[in-house]
Design a protein that fits this description.
single chain, binds fe (ii) ion
Length: 171
């Protein structure tokens, strides 16, 4: 049985993952409008991943005899300045998610709640991967600067990344 504190925290995390999914969807839409098709594909895939994160916690709560709550989702921004600005925002949001995951992990540890600790271990690894990925894209964007050809190539690369993910070549 999950404690009330953990149940509340996990439901907040469900809401956070749902918001992240919608945020990435908004980013994907903007990229689509700009002709950045590869980047759009990448962010659509990110949105799906966040939805999977949400469902992972959702089922966990219900399987552990807690009550998972389908969250209200605030509307994310729909206008962005550039792909670089999007990545900066995305990294900032991922860092917020990481902090929330760490807080749940800390609480679960203090309660000796090994099931939640185990679930959160997965998320700790996942967050590290996502932060590194976003940082990597930002580093490339910095190198590219205002070079249109560079941006075109990065966009293609992001599209290929999304396609590989969809094909199950990456997790
Ligand atoms: Fe997530
Ligand atoms: Fe994420």
């Amino acid at each position: 049985m999950l404690s009330e504190k953990i149940t509340t925290a996990l439901n907040q995390q469900i809401a956070m993952e749902a918001y992240a999914a919608n945020y990435y969807l908004a980013m994907a839409s903007w990229c689509d409008q700009q002709g950045l098709e590869g980047s759009a594909g990448f962010f659509y895939a990110q949105a799906e991943e966040e939805r999977e994160h949400m469902m992972k916690i959702f089922h966990f709560v219900n399987d552990a005899d807690g009550k998972a709550i389908a969250p209200a989702i605030a509307q994310p921004p729909s206008d962005f300045e550039s792909l670089a600005a999007i990545c900066k925002t995305a990294l900032g949001h991922e860092q917020k998610v990481t902090a929330a995951i760490h807080a749940i992990q800390k609480q679960a540890m203090s309660e000796g709640d090994y099931r939640t600790i185990n679930l959160m271990n997965w998320f700790v690894d996942e967050q590290l991967e996502e932060e590194n990925q976003m940082q990597g894209i930002m580093d490339k964007l910095k190198l590219i600067g205002n070079d249109g050809t560079g941006l075109y190539m990065l966009d293609k690369e992001l599209g290929a990344k999304a396609a590989a993910k969809e094909a199950g070549e990456e997790d």
